[in-house]
Amino acid sequence: MGGAQQPHLNGAYYGPSIPPPPPKTYHRPGRGDGCNPLTCCCGCLCSCIFNCIFQIILTFVIVVGVIILVLWLTLRPNKVKFQVTDAALTEFNFTNTNTNTNNLNFNLALNMTVRNPNKRIGIYYDSIEARVFYEGQRFDSIQLTRFYQGHKNTTTLNAVFKGQNLVLLGNKEASKFNEEKSSGTFSIDMKLYLRIRFKVSVFKSPKFKPKIECDLKVPLDSNGGSSGSFEATKCKLDW
């Protein structure tokens, strides 16, 4: 068969231009690229643990808050009220000794009332220590009888401080003592250190240690009786 003769090709190509091959790129993985299965697993586990702990703590706080609110609404607790109703000071003077120290001679009797205004809360007074101070220095302390106080009850306490103790006064305190001696009324502080427990129905609380502070103005009564000029003084409760 005869066919058309193809002209001899000399290696030249006259068709469309051939685009150059794309340049080779080299990808260097960075530290944040990709995900290590072990790292991802640990991160998810830690996040889950933290979320669970947070939810447990939040739930606990909410439950405790609700319980406290319910107890408060049910019990309606009120502060116990302390008051010194009467005081008799028949001796309060210093005696200089051979060692040039000052001994305070004192005879002080105090009557107090303790009022529990609560309807559903009783109070155990497991320990009551009464201390008396003059110009910041304690000159005597006694233990009062322990007792239980029921609901909406008022209890009377009596404390007698009598004796002689060393009390050192500076110039300023000594000057104030002389002024009060001239006026016939002394500034005496009494503090009660308590250990108490609360009782609600059959339940008893742990022990608490509140402190009662009473700032008294006590007139000296040389006749040895209760001073009628003493003004009843409310005391401050310090938790």
UniProtKB/TrEMBL annotation:
Grouped into one coarse class, the protein's main location is membrane
Provide GO CC annotations from the record: membrane
Instruction: Report the domain of life of the source organism.
Output: Eukaryota
Q: Tell me where it resides.
A: Membrane
Which keywords annotate this record?
Membrane, Transmembrane, Transmembrane helix
Q: Where, by residue number, does the polypeptide cross the bilayer?
A: 53-75
Among InterPro entries, the record links this protein to:
LEA_2 (IPR004864), NDR1-like (IPR044839)
Domain named Late embryogenesis abundant protein LEA-2 subgroup: residues: 112-214
Topology term for the membrane: Single-pass membrane protein
Matches recorded under PANTHER family: NDR1_HIN1-LIKE PROTEIN 3, OS05G0367900 PROTEIN
Instruction: Kindly provide the name given to this protein in its UniProt entry.
Output: Late embryogenesis abundant protein LEA-2 subgroup domain-containing protein
- The species is Ilex paraguariensis
State the organism's lineage: Eukaryota, Viridiplantae, Streptophyta, Embryophyta, Tracheophyta
